[in-house]
Write a structure and sequence with these properties.
This protein has 368 residues and is α/β, with parallel strands linked by helices. 38% of the residues lie in helices and 25% in strands. It is built from 15 helices and 13 strands. The strands form two sheets. Strands 9-8-10-11-7-12-13 form a seven-stranded mixed sheet, sandwiched between helices. A six-stranded antiparallel sheet has the order 3-2-1-6-5-4.
Length: 368
Amino acid sequence: MGFDFEAVLAAAATADASDILLKSNVCPALKVDGCVSFTQFAPPNVAELLQLVETLAPKGASERLKTTGDCDFAFERSGVARYRVNAFRHSAGVGLVLRQVKAHVPSFRTLHLPERQFSAFAKLQRGLVLVTGVTGSGKSTTLASLIQAITSERAVHVITLEDPVEFRFRDGPAIVHQREVGVDMSDWRQGLRAAMREAPDVVMLGEIRDSESMEAALAAAETGHLVLSTMHTVNAMQTVERILTFFPPHQHELVRLQLSLVLEGVVSQRLVASASTGRRVPAAEILLATPRVREILRLGRTKDLEHALSDGAVQYGTQTFNMALRCLVDEGVVSADDAVAASDAPDDLRLLLRGVSRGSDRRPAPVR
């Protein structure tokens, strides 16, 4: 019996797998809650995977796979799910990774995200908000939840620039235009330039990858738009430093000034296993543009950010990773052992869980 792609999709939906992993001449695998397990389905061969890309991908994607070695696209199976796909060549043939995208965008509460801070983000009129984390940490879902809150509550014009389009957003009271790289626009730069002529109130950029997209995001925020995007960084301090590395040293002072004026928030998240369900929930470090944070950004004292996040918890709602983890433990959402394992400073977290503060986590966890 040959490779049965539809059966693999059905099995992934039943298991609520986050990803489907297809490798030529290897049994399909599913990733559930961060763990990979192989199925008993027949393995696909190279020809079958190439034909799958040809069938599912928009025009030109299969050609990019041949010429550049990889391509991104999305497709939808009615009644099953929507998928974001990366197809690529490797030493043993061809591979595909399909990320399942939920048809329903979850709310802040469903995702266990701090509602106070995220509701404030959704009400922003202008500025830059970044959601960061490693691959698979839920950045796209968190960003989609934020966009959904905006589109369902505000009469604004939202433009999303994505590669590829993932979650689908409904109009009303907002109107939403979703554009895909390689399908609706040639590249990020062209899409961003065009977006500024399309009267947007909110611009969602799927990912900031280089100096051009970062520069465009800063410029859009400076001209009065709310810009939302993601980056592959692990915490707020690294995010600020990564932004600076996009630019030559002689521009760093100007970029720091820009950040101090337009950066409204950085949410850096990682996923931790839920104590009750076994599914994963995000623990989020949250930087907000407090007066002290703006001064730190302007002066380039990024090492002081962690203390600023801790000190601003009660008044502003900022929080470090350890504060977020402690809050999840106190609510019974995650176990103390799993929280300590996820922490960058486990000894400090152990003290925090016992009610003893040390280092930067001197304040109580904020009310969620």
